[in-house]
Amino acid sequence: SVLRPLRWLEQHGQVEVTRVACDGEGIVSPDDLSAAVRPETRLIALIHASNVTGALQPIEAASTIAKEHGALFLVDAAQSLGHVPIDVSGLGIDLLAAPGHKGLLGPLGTGVLYIAPGVEQQLAPTRQGGTGTVSDQDSQPEALPEKYESGNLNAAGLVGLSAGAAYVNERTVAALREHEMELTRRLLEGLARIDGVSVYGPPKADRRVGVVSLTIAGYDPREAAALLDATWSIQLRAGIHCAPLMHRALGTAKGGGTLRISPGPFSTTDEIDATLEAVAEIAASEGTDEG
């Protein structure tokens, strides 16, 4: 969701993009980020948590770098909003975007964009149309949120998103974070004891969200996912996860990506243990993929 819009803008000559590499755990170095900034840099965009390695990025340091160079700071919180407490004001975040169907527990087709006060003056809407307000004018209204919400809203989806966000607030993001860290810690420790399994990302649960990617020696990730589904009714996502640059950095792209386990608010320790047992059984058998 970050790569493709930027690629399109780049291909049409509207922006120049510098992509900053990550380390072996999927974390971007603040020093590398600062070195990539040029005098004409207008925006620093950073994913808060990788959907492949789960790695939490140094958004506080990135925000400081953006402010020092007079650039706006955009956080893609697709994997962190609702999972990790985020203080947008305290962190100096100018823009924060996230879908509604992940950590906020809403339906598909919903999402949020936080715009810091005053930043809206720098943002032109990409879509013009009816908003149901100031209908006597033939130009897009300046009032928020109508400035960016042309057309009929997904009312049913927003009602669902409201219910999901209410549940998150009731349980609290801090409590959800602790629950997912406990499950992730159990998962990481269990996987480390299984021969033939390689785990990607930070080794400590407090440095990542509830996303754990792995490969099993001798198995294509999609083959392993099919086995888990057919034999144990465990559904995991296998492949590139819409993150080709991350898999290239990890060296997993040519092998078909990784197998991803994602503990969530409703996951249990029994489910984690069952997944570990299933992965161990697959790893102990002989796969068909030698690559």
Short summary of the structure?
This protein has eight helices and eight strands. By secondary structure, the protein is of the alpha/beta class. Strand 1 (43-47), helix 3 and strand 2 form a beta-alpha-beta unit.
Give an overview in words.
The radius of gyration is 21 Å and the shape is globular. Helix 3 (59-68) links the parallel strand 1 and strand 2 (72-76). The protein has helices spanning 3-11, 30-36, 59-68, 155-171, 173-192, 221-232, 244-250, 269-284, and strands at 43-47, 72-76, 95-99, 111-115, 197-200, 212-216, 237-239, 258-261. It contains eight helices and eight strands, in the order H-H-E-H-E-E-E-H-H-E-E-H-E-H-E-H. The strands form two sheets. The chain has a four-stranded mixed sheet. It is of the alpha/beta class. Helix 5 (173-192) packs parallel to helix 8 (269-284) and helix 6 (221-232) crosses helix 8. It is 34% helix and 12% strand.
